[in-house]
Amino acid sequence: MNDSTTDFEFANQDDIENIIKIMRNGYYKCWDREFFLDLIKNRNSLLCVLKKEKSIIGFIAGKKSEENCDIIMLIIDIKNRGEGFGSLLLSNTLLVLKDMRVKNIYLEVAVNNSSAISLYEKYGFKKINIRKSYYKFNKTMIDAVLYRMVNS
Fold first, then answer.
1. How far apart are CA 152 and CA 148, in angstroms?
2. CA dist., res. 136 & res. 102, Å (int)
3. How far apart are CA 67 and CA 44, in angstroms?
4. Residue 8 in contact with residue 88, Cβ under 8 Å?
5. Distance in angstroms (rounded) separating the CA atoms of residues 61 and 42
6. What is the CA radius of gyration of the chain?
7. Sequential DSSP letters for 91-109
8. Which of 49, 69, 72, 125 could form a disulfide with 102 if both were Cys (CB 3.0 to 4.6 A apart)?
9. Residue 65 to residue 137: CA distance in whole angstroms
10. Minimal CA–CA distance to 123: which of 143, 146, 93, 96?
11. pLDDT tens, 5-51?
12. For residue 116, how many other CB atoms are within 10 A of its CB?
């Protein structure tokens, strides 16, 4: 994907520090450099970034198993949220997963994350389960909705 100011691409080692910065600023927990390095090196993993004017503004990570993929995170930098970049990142990732012959895509999202829920449902993800007390945020336990999409 490439328009005049945004690029969707597979992440490389040089992207990890910026990915971690985005995560620290906009997510309830942060994984370390080794976690992201493993995603880049493992052929059954996926780590893609969205760049705006050559700066990373978001990323998506997933783990693949045969015809299935678990999206483990999709994060857009706080100052770029609400501009459609999450949709751009997800739509391009779905195309990549289709090329990889992934048929079933799974993800969890906090029940109170209405913008993410709207995004996933817009792309055809269907609720399949609730995971009670899945996330811990500021000492509060939050349920997660488990979603599945058939990538056809």
1. 13
2. 30
3. 11
4. yes
5. 12
6. 15
7. HHHHHHHHHTT--EEEEEE
8. 69
9. 29
10. 93
11. 899 999 999 999 999 999 888 666 667 889 999 999 999 999 999 99
12. 19
**% of the chain at pLDDT higher than 90:** 80
What is the token pair recorded at 52? Answer: 């705006």
**Taking the model in full, what pTM does it have?**
0.90
Nearest CA-CA partner of 150 in 109, 119, 105: 105
State yes or no: pLDDT of 1 exceeds 70: no
Q: Is 121 helix (H, G, I), strand (E, B) or coil?
A: helix
Instruction: 71-79: list long-range contacts, CB under 8 Å, 24+ apart.
Output: 71/105, 71/106, 71/107, 72/107, 73/23, 73/27, 74/107, 74/116, 75/22, 75/23, 75/26, 75/27, 76/22, 76/26, 76/50, 77/22, 77/25, 77/26, 78/25, 78/26
